[in-house]
Amino acid sequence: MFATKGCTKFHGFLREAYDAGRAEPFAARFNDSSASGDREGMIKVLMDIPCVKTLIIAESYRGKDDVKAAEVYSKIGEAIAGNGVAGEQESRISVLTETLFAASVTSRLFLRALSECAQHCYDLKAFTGCLRYCECMLALPAGLYDKTGESMSDFLERRRACAYLRDECFKMLKRSSSRGRRTRRKCDQKQSSSSEDASRNGQVPARATATVPVVDGKRHPVLQSCSDAVALEFDEKRGRRLVATRNIKAGSVLIVERPFAFATNKDALDTNCSHCHVSFKSSDTVKIPCRFCRAVGFCSEKCREEAWSTYHRFECCLLDGFYENRSEETQLQVSRLLLAYRMTVIGSLSSKSRNAGSDDNVDNEIPFLDDDFLRCHDTEANEGHGSEPGISEIYRSQDYRTVLALTTHCATLDSNVNLIRAIEAVFLTKCFIFALGKMDVVCLKEAFLWLAVGMFHHLQAIQCNAYEIVENVYKETSHVWEPREIGGAIYPTVSLVNHSCYPNVVRHSYPAGTVVVRTLRFIGKGKEILDCYGPHFLSEKRLQRREHLERKYHFLCECEACMENWQYPLPETMIYKCSTCSEGIGVLPSSEKNTRYAAAVQCRRCNERIDCKKLEVQFRKSVDKRLNAISKMYEGCYAQALPQLLEHIHFIEKFFLAPNIETIKTQQCIIQCYNQFGCISQ
Q1: Sign of the CA dihedral 451, 456, 458, 459?
Q2: Fewer CB under 10 Å: which end of the chain, C or N?
């Protein structure tokens, strides 16, 4: 990605700059700035280091290769021979896709492969996929091709063919969607029956792209990504936090938020759209290449255009440098660097530069770097000044000022950690300046300083504010949806939620990186909304949890599970509680056989009488609902299982003390339902 004397890789530059920063005359100045949380001062120290001054950025990307593309395409015959009908179809589209990614967008081979992909989908009656390839063809600007050469004639001919296919696909899809109610009902019943049969045979029924839900109730007038069931408060000990403004039942949607910025993990580049992260394994998805590099793929022309206009054009010529020769151990670091880079790109450019122009000039659009905005708001973030979003003004999660208000713990971080982050910030800023230079944008030294300060802030904020983007993969042997991390993102509103080792909400990823936060159990009015940052009492002991949270997030956890030192596994016995005052009043027998219990007991605190025999009968019936819901989940009927699970957990929470094994079992089932509703891969 870059070249500098004595080293050619980022880790080499990092070592050289780190050694220089730890030595005099730079070490003392840097340590003083670090102790006071002065990001500007730390960056200025690094800018005086010789190896930083001589750092030169160079292109690092796999460009198009028409020779390679021709070689791939020439093997299409042998790739499909002897594979049967299904194998032939899969092999053909695989070769065509590889050709698309290798061929330059101006070549006739690219046009040929693209039109053949569209025709292939149409022949298979995969009309949605055909439409996406046609959209890609029709979005190509005519200015890319020589008006006097054969390429223009070929372009116009294939464009007309794709326009015809597009119209035919619209007709087919319209005809299909306009069937009578009775016909649709029969088809739905048949599909449902087929899905259930497939589930019983260990297969996961095919499913359309997940629909992003909306928040329950009204949208909050200030916290724009939240339901009005929550509010933002400030606490001297816990800082900013979200609390319930009314009683909230289990299963409620509290937050729906798009990421301010996100990054994709290397191992997900081949399996997921690099913009919306939808799985390429779905039957109706296609794979559209970037017009200039081979590193990323998109599920539609819309995703490609959005990615290009917002962030990808500033990294396209550098992206392989983020991923090349990285071990699995350092992939998290790579994702973090790319996320910080995109946060700066998105935040520091004028919004005018993100509005795509016409098809013919969108690729040549020149961005505008707002130096005054950077200087003003980076200084405010550095000094801890500025407004209080969510209290004094609307909390806009897509506003750069909101991102700059995220916690960083700059002054409390170890000086060595700050040095590493500052070196990364300078390196990434040089990359950004290089990308801007290729667009004829001149960046002055002062602008470089504020860009680096902002980049530094983001790298620190990511450590304690970034969340993973996941898709859920179905395991046939266990009938469980297991999360697979495919990237990371910044969600300014979700970052307001504090931690508990026994959380009352859970997060799930949806297309385009959108995160949905739902309640796992009842939350009373005035109670805090609590997420889990990783350590959960079900999987780790209190000491290990607290050490991890202190090391990464800089706080001593005092949640209910830590203060009472809850231990797992939990006992099978359940403790009755008074539904009026929540006082524990007795133990529910673990078995109905040979068990004696009082017909009724009286609460010592409020004198409420509890009919234990009646309550136990109700408990057994409610457990049967959970077991019935699990059966439905095995059949793939998650939407039918969820109401039973929510009804059961409401009963358990009303009559039994936490923690208890029945609540834990039910919550895990509820999470499985939510897993299947979000981003999935089959």
Answers
A1: positive
A2: C
Look up residue 279 and give its amino acid.
S
Q: How many CA atoms does the CB half-sphere of 679 hold within 13 Å?
A: 28
Q: Give the closest residue to 537 by CA, choosing from 672, 653, 664, 673.
A: 664
How many Å apart are CA 309 and CA 326, to the nearest integer? 27
665: alpha, beta or left? (left if phi > 0; alpha if psi -120 to 50): alpha
What is d(CA 71, CA 102) in angstroms, rounded to the nearest whole number?
10
Write the pLDDT tens digit of every residue in 520-544. 999 999 999 999 998 999 999 999 9
Count of CB atoms within 10 A of residue 201's CB?
8
Looking only at the bridges linking them, the beta strands covering 498-499 and 530-531 are parallel
Question: How far apart are the C-alpha atoms of 600 and 611, rounded to whole Å?
Answer: 4
Whether residue 260 contacts residue 403, with contact meaning beta carbons closer than 8 Å, is answered with yes
| DSSP-assigned states of every residue in 399-465 | -HHHHHTS---GGGS-HHHHHHHHHHHHHHHHHHHHHHHTTT----HHHHHHHHHHHHHHHHHHHHH
The arithmetic mean of pLDDT across residues 621-629, rounded, is 95
Contact of 638 with 676, CB cutoff 8 Å: yes
Write the pLDDT tens digit of every residue in 60-114.
Answer: 888 899 999 999 999 887 656 555 555 677 788 889 999 999 999 999 999 999 9
Element (H, E) at 299: none
Give the per-residue SS3 of 517-537. Answer: EEECCCECCCCECEECCCCCC
Distance CA 22, CA 12 (A): 16
Furthest C-alpha separation in the chain: 96
Hey, what are 108's tokens?
């006739």
Asked if residues 619 and 575 have their Cβ atoms less than 8 Å apart, the reply is no
C-alpha 557: how far from its chain's center? 26
How many CB atoms lie under 10 A from the CB of residue 431? 26
H or E stretch covering 369: none
3 state DSSP class of 129 = helix
pTM of the model: 0.87
